[in-house]
Amino acid sequence: xxxxxxxxxCTNKKARHEYFIEETFEAGLSLEGWEVKSIRAGKxxxxxxxxxxxxxxxxxxxxxxxxxxxxxxxxxxxxIRTRKLxxxxxxxxxxxxxxxxxxxxxxxLSCYWKGSRVKCEIALAKGKKLHDKRATLKERDxxxxxKRGFKADMR
Length: 155
Hints:
Order of helices and strands: EHEHEEEEEHEEH
Low-confidence stretches: none
Number of helices: 4
CATH superfamily: Small protein B
Helix content: 25-40%
């Protein structure tokens, strides 16, 4: 298993399997204090998350941040609340325009630390059909078999 970089919090491996990635964007996340503490402890998952648009703003929906028992004693945490994504107006307009076209979606790919801030890499993506997913798996298996063959030849 590949080791994740030290600044990476979580990844959405399912997104690259389910979608063709057209373009990626870096967005900030608007978080509460208990959420940041939980993220530092590695309690975040974005596997089933996606981006929605309301009133000209982008929001991350479905990201799960499990609250820590020690940091959330005086508040009532909502672990799957909708969190605001911090993007430039031009980026929001572009994403919103593309999502309104057939087949496009905006999905989070990964979350990571950039300095002391949490950033989310989001992507404009187009859904894959079943035969596309099979072709991707076949190509990946072929690449792995090729590498194994080269290793066997080296010995």
